[in-house]
Design a protein that fits this description.
The chain has two domains: about 130 residues, Beta-Lactamase (2-Layer Sandwich); about 220 residues, Beta-lactamase (3-Layer(aba) Sandwich), CATH 3.40.710.10. It is globular. Helices cover about 30% and strands about 15% of the residues. The chain has about 375 residues and is α+β, with helices and mostly antiparallel strands. Strand 2 and strand 3 form a beta hairpin. The strands form three sheets. Strands 3-2-1-12-11-10-9-8 form an eight-stranded antiparallel β-sheet, sandwiched between helices.
Amino acid sequence: MSQTSEQAIDEAVDRALAERRIVGAVVLVARDGEQVYRRAAGLADRETGRPMRPDTVFRWSSLTKPVIAATTMALVERGVLDLTSPVTRWLPGFRPALPSGERPEITVDHLLLHTAGLRYGFGDPTGAYPAAGISDGLDRTELTLAENVDRIASVPLLFPPGTGWAYSVGYDVLGAVIESATGRPLPDVVAELITGPLGLTAGFSLPRTAEPATPYVNGDPEPVRLDEAVPVPFDPRPLLISPERIFDPGQFPSGGAGMAGTADDLMILLETLRSGGGPVLRPETVAEMLPSRTEREAQPGVTGGFGRGWAVVLDPTVEGSPLSAGSLSWGGVYGHSWAVDLERRITVVVCTNTTLEGMVGRFPAEVIAGATLPERRL
């Protein structure tokens, strides 16, 4: 007898927990705007035995990026930002140079698409970003947002803007652009334009009384509790992550990695975008965000193209994806993954407390494959 979508997802969750690849997870699936799967499983904190709950808060890391993309486009709609204008219109000092010394023009769209020639410290084989003391928005730092952006501008670009693709701190620079353009702190702008209208609980800091999911990192025979002294193995450089960062309101608001929220928060945002953007964006604005505007070389767990805020499946057969062509996806390094299959009208949210398994391991791949099985009416 053929397997139902719900059975396939249940088996993926049960298997990942039994094999101790993850500590806990919240998995949500929506079809045609109706939630058809909702499960919290495992533990939010293994050492205390605290169970995972549907409303458990997670450190979002790069789940923050679609929020900032939506905020950026909401400001474009209002005429506050312009995709084709140089970033120096709002940040006059942001003029990173090429190795030749030339200082090319970087636009808002270059930042959105990761085509500006910037990078992340953990993706920098040269070590130039760590040497400059640049924060990736995941560590605990004394830097302000403006100071971090200044340091980013001090390192030579990888390539002329618009000629390549590299995952980067561009969304942190976008946060600084938004603050300059509006004259307001980034968290306030995000709350007014996106999280407030959608009723999301997500934000850039948590009170000390909050109990978010405790983060873990892949280990053998089981995941290891992640703390300030445990770097996350990554190629070519380890990730420097501070779980304590989210409790410190003095940390700069990272547009690329700084928010925390629930799986429901992310599902609401993604479903809002899938269904046309109301009440935060116009349908025509969302339509401009969806398609790929760049092709890029495959990276670990990442293939296809990139739109304004997410990866885009270009050819499922080449990329080995169960998603339809044109589908959107991305994740978060704390152990999250999401996908929106526009053709099938399916949205999948996978939030775990285990990195890197929850982001690029078997678990999210098996959940997404299960969620996209043909629906069988019983």
